[in-house]
Design brief:
Elements (H helix, E strand, L loop, with lengths): L1 H43 L7 H7 L9 E9 L11 E8 L4 E7 L4 E4 L3 E4 L2 H19 L5 E6 H11 L4 E5 L14 E5 L1 H9 L6 H20 L2 H14 L3 E3 L3 H13 L6 E5 L5 E6 L3 E6 L1 H13 L1
Parallel strand pairs: 1-6, 3-10
Antiparallel strand pairs: 1-2, 2-3, 4-5, 6-9, 7-8, 11-12
Length: 312
């Protein structure tokens, strides 16, 4: 009996030690994550978005805990304006079951019906009613359900890029880029950091205009995703979130962002697949009074391609 009691005490003692070790590890990881997050916040600077909660409360996208998630990604350079027209409109699609990432860019001049405002360029929806009206616009015109949104200030993009890819991103610049981006990027194969990388994805004063800009944005996001797959960046994830926090207005909470980020990085998601709306040969350039130059699209054709892209 005495031997059995001693054995039970030993097993219980080992369990307590193991439990204590697990608690200590969890505490250390939590403390490290909090430290990294605060480091990121200190790097970012002052908040740019002041009304995060107001926009988040108005947003009616369905909350998805697991499965296929659509996040509306909006690039903004508001310079203090409350609801300027969005410079970049994307839908990031992620399937948590097969770890497939997809990115859809919607051209800002796409001519669509905006609920309550009639036919307009799609980027006007954000100016009229923020992320929620843009969500409704996408649902009405393309029948895509948006679950979450993230409005990213462009200054935050350059900071995030420098953390994810401190050695820069290699691109092949077809010609000199300078007008409207606050810097000069020489032609040829270049390794770009921070502000120059931001200029590369924002430049649109070339023969391809906004189409070239969308192509470069998808290229750079794909390369940043590849850089983020390294183990070092998994450890940097809380810091990255800390950097982005002052430059982002989103209804995704920090635990959800960490969970999605960890899933994307640790499960080695498949190559990023991309699509542009409108698709090739599905639009005409037109001009309407009060609206200006628009892309008048074949809505049925674009919806069909988009449905197949998301389903495949």
């Amino acid at each position: 009996m005495g031997r059995m009691r001693r054995r039970k005490k030993l097993v219980k003692s080992k369990r307590m030690i193991l439990f204590s070790i697990i608690i200590i590890i969890i505490g250390c990881v939590s403390a490290y994550a909090a430290y990294q997050y605060q480091q990121g916040v200190s790097l970012a600077g002052k908040d740019r978005f002041k009304d995060d909660e107001q926009a988040a409360k108005a947003f009616e996208g369905a909350d998805v805990k697991f499965g296929k998630i659509n996040v509306l990604l909006l690039g903004s350079d508001t310079r203090g304006e409350e609801h300027a027209r969005t410079d970049t409109i994307m839908i990031a699609h992620y399937d948590q079951e097969n770890h497939q990432s997809k990115l859809i860019s919607i051209m800002r001049d796409t001519y669509v019906n905006i609920p309550g405002h009639g036919k307009q360029k799609i980027n006007a929806a954000y100016a009229y009613g923020g992320p929620e009206l843009l969500r409704k616009t996408i649902k009405e015109n393309f029948d895509v359900d948006i679950n979450y949104y993230a409005v990213v200030d462009f200054e935050g993009f350059s900071k995030i890029a420098d953390i994810i890819a401190p050695n820069g991103i290699e691109v092949d610049v077809p010609y000199e880029m300078s007008y409207g981006i606050g810097t000069t990027i020489e032609p040829g194969i270049q390794t770009l950091n921070g502000d120059k990388l931001l200029g590369y994805v924002r430049f649109r004063h070339d023969k391809l205009s906004d189409f070239g800009r969308v192509q470069r944005q998808q290229e750079v996001i794909g390369k940043l995703k590849d850089e983020a797959m390294s183990m070092g960046n998994i450890l940097k994830l809380p810091k990255i979130l800390g950097v982005v926090d002052p430059y982002i207005d989103t209804n995704l909470d920090t635990p959800t962002l960490l969970s999605l980020g960890k899933d994307l990085l640790t499960n080695r998601s498949n190559d990023l697949r991309t699509l542009r709306i409108p698709v090739q040969d599905s639009y005409t350039d037109e001009r309407f009074g009060g609206v200006g130059a628009v892309l008048s699209i074949n809505l049925d054709q674009n919806k069909s391609v988009l449905d197949k892209f998301l389903a495949s």
